[in-house]
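Sample intake — SAM-dependent methyltransferase
Collected from: Streptomyces variegatus
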Amino acid sequence: MIQESEASEPEATRRDAGTTESSRANRGWWDRNADEYQIEHGTFLGDDRFVWGPEGLDEVEAELLGPPEELKGRDVLEIGAGAAQCSRWLTAQGARPVALDISHRQLQHALRIGGSFPLVCADAGALPFADGSFDLACSAYGALPFVADPRQVLREVRRVLRPGGRLVFSVTHPIRWAFPDEPGPEGLSVSASYFDRTPYVEQDDEGQAVYVEHHRTLGDRVRDVVASGLRLVDLVEPEWPVWNTSEWGGWSPLRGNLIPGTAIFVCERG
């Protein structure tokens, strides 16, 4: 999983966690850990780059939202924006982004770095926007890995997209759930069932969840997209590039050269 360590280690387990518990736990986790996250990963992410995942695939090269020159004047919603690096890049292309995150502390980092676009603190399952407000939506590891009901989020995104609008989102590649979350050789042997959808939960001494991440198989993700009224037009599995020598949680050059770590779904609203 992609969580960072805390001062007092919570208990890691696999158990059911519903929508409310997941939302509350992850809002609190990101508020508590935003500072450490930005210190550890801020250099890799940059202030105004659009990176889809730990492999370092950059939207400048990928053009999953479309050619950069066609982004000018487009209304774009970034979901799970964190410090809004992607929104800053979109602004530089002439787009009109809105950066949304469930964590107030993450958005404070967005304020610290700066930018001329709106910041919105809200749950992705209840987007505070009118129907048809955006031309594009994007989410680089935001919201979708952490919600109990991804179809609710996808339906909300479809609602706020204009006809023909595009959503691109990246998540942990489902195959990674079968392997230990270790970047070295110990992370290369299957240790769990790929088909076990039981959420990964970190809980405190009272059994209250403080972090939740939800596993969906690749087929589940495709069915979620289709059931939400979106059309899947591409599925990108970034390969690990030679230049990237860094480790990030369970991501590493060793593992990245053998198994995919990220899945990027490119969807359109009819």
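Post-analysis note: Confidence is low (pLDDT under 50) at residues 2-6.
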